């Protein structure tokens, strides 16, 4: 059996997605997500110009060998563009293998370890009152875990506060929107938000908060301490993770758990954080961390060090990534949480899928393979639109992490 064709499909059903579809000589096909938010065309070119020609004629069942061939064979290692491209190939090959075996992918990687995948949604609002209404919406929908973000008094906008309820789309303009940031206003405000949320919703709902790389380690330590009375499940990306020693300082000061990893691409990006037990949840996911094959390696290393998964699942990760992530989530021993931001109906129509939310859990498809596809005719009706993530400045105009 051989790969005869691989198509790179770029489409924008309310947001941009890059999808790889691999076709074999006996007609079985597989799909993989290759979307890198704001840099989509770089991955599309990496695939079209450099990877696809090397796939033609290969045996699609040699998943590990193809992974090694693309990783070691490129000479240039790691990085989001390379690893998203490899991820797309790997994901599509697992999809094909599942279809050949007549089994959902989770059964090929060890089988079910739990009845469903606990997911968290995003409750947010300009004011605390607005955010409380959104928390109630998720509680009513049956979510067991909720991320809460609000506007900061005195600031025109902040990360995580959306215009549309249930959807959050930060990549809102071709040339990046500019946001303004004040760490002192933020640090004073956040504990008041979680105080109100715990008061209204009690101790059982899991609460999370995304700091989006905006603090220094000592500021993150203060935030973690100030949130201890409200028992958060995690604070996410408290500091940029290039300098990983910084996490030791956070750890020395607070018992609020820490989650990191949505911008990581390989096990080498998180090896120190995991080995030194500086984090509690690793948030890497299929599309940006080299596919199912490599994500399993990251999660297996994490399992040895009391670190659980907490995979990224924002709207820029396509339903193909979400489908694949759920097969991993349901199978691994050290699953923690899965982020689940709903896609718009236009996105859902372009990517018909069998995963579904029921009883407060997401469930992977039971179809052979991943249980997701791309409707290429419909996809062609939504041409690519340039869209960038915002940038962020301090009040005096200094560039800051977004
Ligand atoms: C975020 C994302 O979901 C999250 O935790 O940090 O919204 C992130 O900003 C986007 O996925 C970037 O593409
Ligand atoms: Mg995040």
TrEMBL record:
Classification via NCBIfam families: ManoateDhtManD, PRK15072.1
GO MF: mannonate dehydratase activity
Keyword Metal-binding: no
Enzyme Commission (EC) number: 4.2.1.8
Source superkingdom: Bacteria
Any Pfam family the entry gives: MR_MLE_C
Protein name listed in UniProt: D-mannonate dehydratase ManD
Residue ranges of every copy of the Mandelate racemase/muconate lactonizing enzyme C-terminal domain listed in the record: 129-257
Keyword Lyase assigned: yes
Alphabetic keyword roster: Lyase
